[in-house]
Amino acid sequence: MPELPEVETIVKRLKSELVGEVITRVEVKRAKSFQGNTKQLKGRRIVDVSRRAKLILIKLNQDNLLIHLKMTGQLILINDHKRLGGGHPSADWIGGLPSSHTRVIIYLMSGQVLYFNDQRVFGWIRQMSDQAVDQELAQYGPDIINVRVTAGYLYQRLQARSSAIKLVLLDSRVVAGLGNIYVCDGLFLAGINPQKKAKTVSLSQVTKLLTALKTVINRAIKLGGASINTYRQVDGLSGGYQDELLVYGREDMPCPQCGAKIERFKQGGRSTFWCRQCQR
After folding, report:
1. CA torsion 221→226→232→235, rounded to 10°?
2. Strand order in the sheet with 102-108
3. What integer pLDDT is reported at residue 131 of this predicted model?
4. Bridge partners (DSSP) listed for residue 59
5. I want to staple 79 with a disulfide (CB 3.0 to 4.6 A). Which of 112, 122, 166, 173 is the partner?
6. Residue 30 and residue 24: Cα distance in Å, rounded?
7. Mean pLDDT of residues grouped by 10 in the chain (280 residues)?
């Protein structure tokens, strides 16, 4: 699933190209993937592109398009010279579009075309009013990189939870924008066992953990996120954090700190990677 750094990168790549564009037509190829009135969108001007949690907000001069990529979503903008965007790495990054995974196509006045692809059809685009967007985003806690997320705030939220610390960090109601890759690496950097009960993590550990999480997230944003497969070198779509992973995806490889083997186990239906020696 594209996480905060990947979504932030998509927004940065698309914003300069999309702001000022006018929608000429929206073609919905899979009804489940789009909620709204395509006829109303004709002639609407794009005034901003931003991110909140893992959602992408395309603000129009009237209404908004709120986008969630979920597990396998992509936004790819094509013009005469290049492809920009990102999301789940797949052959659609380099293949002809539309493809069998294309769910929504947004045609723009300049001739550029924005493709929303989604293999597993969990993602969506919704036409929403400002009020509806506010109501949707109110379900999320503050972004992990928001100044509101202090050690005191996170410690207080953890005190009420007896679940494993890793699972609580993945709960977007507590703090938004964290996904499996960066939680695994953040917990490693902080030296915290991912199975430790959240309410037993001390304030000093939370302080160290918050610093670690912000470190890996900001580093990933700088590198354009992670593109973990054979398509990771595609210009305009890929990221570079996969070359700096600390523990995620490194099962049986040596720990970068102590040299012991990185282990993997299932936690909440997802793989957790950790070092038994370094994370207590």
Report:
1. -10
2. 23-28, 102-108, 113-118, 73-78, 83-87
3. 98
4. 48, 64
5. 112
6. 19
7. 91 96 98 98 98 97 97 94 92 95 98 97 98 97 96 97 97 96 98 98 98 97 88 83 96 98 97 97
Selection from 131, 129, 125, 156 nearest residue 142 by Cα: 156
Domains present along the chain, CATH in parentheses: 4-137 (3.20.190.10), 151-274 (1.10.8.50)
* Residue closest to 105 by CA, chosen among 60, 16, 41, 49: 41
Contact status, residue 68 vs residue 76, Cβ threshold 8 Å: no
Please report which helix (H) or strand (E) contains residue 124, including its range: strand 124-128
* Cα 98 to Cα 96: distance, rounded to the nearest angstrom: 6
Residues in contact with 216: Cβ distance below 8 Å, sequence separation at least 6, in sequence order: 182, 185, 186, 189, 246
What is the reported pLDDT for 228? 80
Catalytic residues: 2-3, 54, 270
Taking Cα atoms as reference points, which of 170, 138, 7, 137 lies closest to residue 75? 7
- Note whether 103 and 28 are within 8 A (CB): yes
Alpha carbon distance 140, 126 (integer Å) = 17
